[in-house]
Structure formats: C-alpha cells, structure tokens
Amino acid sequence: MKKIGFLSFGHWASHEAYKTQSAKDTLLQSIDLSVAAEEIGIDGAYFRVHHFAKQLASPFPLLAAIGAKTSTIEIGTGVIDMRYENPLYMVEDASAADLISEGRLQLGISRGSPEQVIDGWRYFGYRPEEGESDADMGRKKGLEFLEHLKGLGFAAPNPNPMFPNEPGLLRLEPHSEGLRDRIWWGAGSNSTAIWAAENGMNLQSSTLKDNESNKPFHVQQAEQIRLYRDAWKAAGHTRQPRVSVSRSIFALVNDQDRYYFGQDNRKHDSVGSLEPGKRAIFGRSYAAEPDILVKELAADEAVAEADTLLLTIPNTLGVEYNVHVLESILKYVAPDLGWR
C-alpha cells in the first residue's frame, strides 16, 4: 500500500489552451481539485512554491482553504524555499493552517532551487551572513523553523503586558502539536538526505537530483533513500520516517490522453546543469497504456523504496481532466502494482 498524492506547480498564463488564465483561476481550481481528489481516494494534495513567477507562491492561505473544505486528504508543499522565509512567522502560519485542517499538514521545505530572479531572497530582505552561502542560510532557517515548532518558550515576557502572561518564557502561538513530525526536507543530494535524517525530517525526493554516479536516475534515487534510512536509524529517532518521490505518470486510456501525452518523448533520463559547477540528472516521464505502465513502474527502484508517490499534474488543463488523470492511475495502474 502506498500513499498517492498529486503535486501541482500551479501555472497560469493568458494562453488560449489554458484553463488557468489567472492566479485566481489557479487558486480556486487547486481547492476544487483537492476536494475532488479526496472524493476519488487520493491521499494527498501538494503544491510547489516559486517566487517571481506565474505559479503558486504563498502556500498557507491555499493550504488553510483546502483544509477547511476537506476532511481526510493530506495537504502539503513540495517545497517551500526557506531562503525566502521568516522562520518564526512561518511557524505561526503553518500552525494555524494545521489546526484548521485538524492535523493534516505535510510541509516540504528545502534550501531551494534556482529561481526566476537572481538572488530573489534579497528582495525579501534576507542575506547570508559573512562566510555563509545562500544554501547555508536556507538550511539554518529550516533548523530554526523546526526548533520553534516544538512549542517551547524562548521569549522574555513584558513585565507590563496588555494581557496577562503565563509564568516563564513565552512561545509562538498558535502551537500545533505533532506538526514538527510532519516536516519533510526536499533533498537534491545524498548528503542533504543524510542531513535531513539526522535532523528528524521526512524525505522528499523529486524528479531530479545531483548526478553522483553514472547510474540511472531511479537507481541513484533509491540509493539516496537507503542512505537516508540508514542515517535515520543511526540517529536513534523513535518514529518511522516517511519518504516520497515525484513522478510524471500518465495512463493513456482515451484519445484525449493520447493527444496530450501519447507523443511524450521524455522516456529516458537526461543530464544537465541547474547551477554552475553542478551536474543534475532528470528522471524520465511515464506515458503509456496501463499494462505497459505497470511493467515500467515495477522496474523503478525508487518508487518501490518510497512509501508516498506524488504525481505531477498538468494543472493548466483544468480540474475535470486532472481528476481523470488521477483516477486513471488509481483504477488501472495502482492495483496491479500493489499500491492499492
């Protein structure tokens, strides 16, 4: 049994073929899709966060709205770029959204990937300290966020407050018990996966990672997951960690599917560069008739290792078609692979 969720980048544009012409369209359709996904048995609704782009950016209003409209589906991100965040304010936002959803938040965070704007986090008022890289800054903010999710007091109270204080140091409010255990780190390398395990975070691994060997993407990703689990065990954590991988998977069951994805030529991994001095490997997409998909996915070592699969969706094609995409996986693919 695997948990199966969808991952939306939340694109919109003034394009005649798009069902999402504006930010409003994307936000409202994201809520509608989450409600419909819950109804058909999808386990999670996850959203990518990008800044300075016509894509979803500020996640917490959307997550809270979905939480208020649904009752069982997990609601998360994949991922929030911590270089742009105020960790303390984020604790308040995340805790409020988690309370509204009654404990269903699954937040993916990371140091971030290359963005639309050079050093975009500087426009948000953040700069690395002396001798620190932007990646260091992102990881440090991530750890600060985790620390304050524990709900421990740290701030000295005003001796003459507007409202009476409880004795001792004050914590951030609201506090959502258990949210600390539902934070995931998006790791692009083996070393950051190990670091995530050591710091007690679940692991998110996407459709790309650092190219650390000449092995196929799914093999490298499976090795990353095993290294993560070994590090988790060595760290002595008592709870069972969770691991997700992302995939683009489309079951071709009608002419519309074949029109959109039947000519997809991304059936092989590719190697490229996301930032200077780093080679990245990009995992293949899957688009085929269900019986072929079952055989191909059965050979994907990383999918087999993970307990959660996030299906990247073409959100610009609208709610109805994306429900069809998700339902086709649940109906024609998941049972034969033992995911359901």
Task: Give keywords.
340 residues; alpha/beta; 8-stranded parallel beta barrel; 3-stranded antiparallel sheet; 10 helices; 14 strands; 36% helix; globular
Silhouette: globular
Number of helices: 10
**Series of H and E elements:** EHEHEEHEHEHEEHEEHEEEHHEH
Radius of gyration: 20 Å
Write up this protein.
This protein has 340 residues and is of the alpha/beta class. 36% of the residues lie in helices and 18% in strands. It is built from 10 helices and 14 strands. An 8-stranded parallel beta barrel has the order 1-2-3-5-6-7-9-14, surrounded by 6 helices. The protein has a 3-stranded antiparallel sheet with strand order 8-12-11, with no helix packed on it. β1 (3-8), α1 and β2 (44-47) form a beta-alpha-beta unit. α3 (87-100) crosses α4. The N and C termini lie close together (5 Å). The model has no long low-confidence stretch (mean pLDDT 96).
Short description:
The protein has 340 residues and is α/β, with parallel strands linked by helices. Helix content is 36%, strand content 18%.
Helix-strand layout with pairing:
Layout: E1 3-8, H1 23-40, E2 44-47, H2 59-69, E3 74-77, E4 80-81, H3 87-100, E5 105-110, H4 134-149, E6 183-186, H5 190-198, E7 202-205, E8 208-210, H6 217-235, E9 243-247, E10 249-251, H7 255-261, E11 270-275, E12 278-282, E13 286-288, H8 290-298, H9 301-305, E14 308-312, H10 319-333
Parallel strand pairs: 1-2, 1-14, 2-3, 3-5, 4-5, 5-6, 6-7, 7-9, 9-14, 10-13
Antiparallel strand pairs: 8-12, 11-12
